[in-house]
Structure formats: structure tokens, C-alpha cells
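Human: Respectfully, please carefully check these C-alpha cells:
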Amino acid sequence: MASREWKTNEYWKTVSIVVVLVFASLATLTYALRMYAARISSSRFKVQDYLMGIGLLLSYGATVATILNAFNGVGVPSKELPLAEKNSLNYGSWIIQKFWPTSMAFIKISIIFFLRSLFGARPIVRRWLDGLSVIIALWATAALLTNIFQCWPPSYYYNKNQKGHCMPGQKQFFMAMGSLALIEDTVILLIPMPTIWTLKVKLRQKIAVTFILSLGSLVCVLSLLRIVEFRRFLLTDLSSSSALESIFTCLEMNIATICGCLPLLRPVFRKFLTRTDGSRSYGASSAKQPNFQSGFLSASSRSGASEFQKLSDVNFLATRVASKSKGSSGKRDETRTSSEIELKGIEVSTSMHQEVRPASIPDSDELRRHVL
């Protein structure tokens, strides 16, 4: 029996293909630059780099399914589609639901690993991040399994020409999973803020650092838009009701990848800027001047090699110096330690002043040897 003729919805076909391809390409480029930045700064990759890569690869599954749906009648009412195109589009919708929670879980946990390397020296922050990682892993597992078995047999979701049934409240389940994802995104966004605002720096510098880390709010916006779009989601007419939801799903994964990689790209920008303006190469550093490497914070060792510094190292060093100098007498002096936060051209210096009475004034290298 010949398939009946149907007319493609050119608007949704074009939008679906162009938007998801552009943002998937941007996410891929950003991740490639992240890996290049890690290579030129420390010559090694970290766990969070691999986790982000896995999340990006999984997002490609949703991207491909969305593009295929564009050729199978997205935006066209189901009753106007031939059976083959209708089943193919429903299958694409089913596939997208499998890649979204798994991709977002890897991306979020990658970001958590990154935040842990920066702010994990504070026990309360570390506990929050560790607990959130477990919650995200459980959420992704529950979402994936429920998505697979929401209908029995599972193929009944996209092919109704067989005996089967689906669980009640499917749309409410999708909205619940999306709401939990939004809460996770919001918590990840807020966890670093108290630490940043307790730094002894100028107000404008705190605002600048907060702005850089708040780029992740774009993911929250897309997650919210996706939840709102589910209100118009019709399981009996996926071809005409799932177009915008599929686009938001792909955008959420791609923007999350981009926002998770951007804070780590400064080594790339600095490398090319130093070549352009003729200043010293990126790798050159002074033993007294902290240097940005991979991540927001770093400090140079005595030999010139850089090592990662946590925010609390400043307080830790000052405390150790004060305890070693307690009870001694001599000239009143001021010991100063500092750490640097460099964010895309923004340098934030924090300092702590401690009055001690040492027998002699130790230099910075001697302080480091006492501590280490």
C-alpha cells in the first residue's frame, strides 16, 4: 500500500536542524578548547575533563534524534503523517528522553568536580558538593530507567500498533524530572557564592567573579523553559507538540557544556594574546607572582612550576605562621600572604594581615618550607 502524501513543516524543520547543529558545534568547539587549555597549562587531563567529554558525546544522541525528527514530519499533526514517519518521529522522541538525563548527569558532576577543586577545602562546601553528586547520579538513574520502561513493552511508546500499555501520568513524570533537574542546576549555581562573598576584596571584584560563575544561570533558564513547554506536550500527537521541547532539550545540554568549559579557557586566550602583543610567553612566571594555569586559582612554586591553590590556603598559611611565631619577641612586622583569582582578564587579589613578633623576618620561601 503506497504511503499517502504529506507536506513538511518547513519552519520547524529548518529551526530544528539549524539551532541544534549550531549549538552542538559551539559546545564541541568549547570542549576542544578546554582540552587544549589543559594540555598547554598542565599537560594532563583531570577527571572532570573526561566526565564533560562523556556528557558531550551523549548529547550528540539527542542532537541526531532531533535532526532526524525534522525530516520525519516535526511540526506536522500526527494524523497527517504516514505510519512509517509517525513511528520514526515517536521513536526519535523516545531516544531523546534517554540521552538527556545521562548527558546532563555527566556534565553536572563534571562541574561539581571542578567546584570541589576550588572550594572543597571548606568542609561544608565539600559535603554539599559530594551529596549533590550522589543525588544527581540517583536522579539520572531513576529518570533513565523510568523513561525506558514507562510503556510495556518499551516499543509501545513509539509504535501503538501492538498490544501494550503505558504508565499513568507520563507528562507529570516528565515535568517532575525536569523540576528536579532545575533544582540541581540552581544549587550548583549557588554553592560557590557564599565563599566568594566572604573574600576580602573590593565589591566590584566580587561582582565580577559572581558574574563569571553565574553564566550557568542560562542553563536554569532553559531548564525552566523546557518544563513550561511540557505543559503543551501531547503524547497522542508528538509530531506537532514536541518540536520546541526537543530544541530546548538539546540547548540545555549544549549550553551546560559551554558554561562548564568557559571558565577554563583563559590559558588559550592568554597564549594567543601574548603572541599578539609581543609580551612574555604564557609559561613564564615569577616565583613571587601567582600564575593562572588550569582552573581559577594557582600559585607558583619556588622552581617556577605551578601548583593548584585552594581558597583556604591563605588562611591556613597565615595560621601556621602565627602559631610558629607565638611567644617570640622582636620588631613588629607584618606578614602578608595572598592568592589570586584570575577570570578572563579579571584579577582578584585577597590578602590577610597578621601581626606577629618573630625573632627574625622570614621570607616567602622560608614560610612555604615551614608549612610544607
Q: What stands out?
A: The CA atoms of residues 182 and 223 lie 6 Å apart. Confidence is low (pLDDT under 50) at residues 279-319, 326-350, 356-372. The longest strand covers residues 333-343. The chain has two domains: 10-264, 269-371.
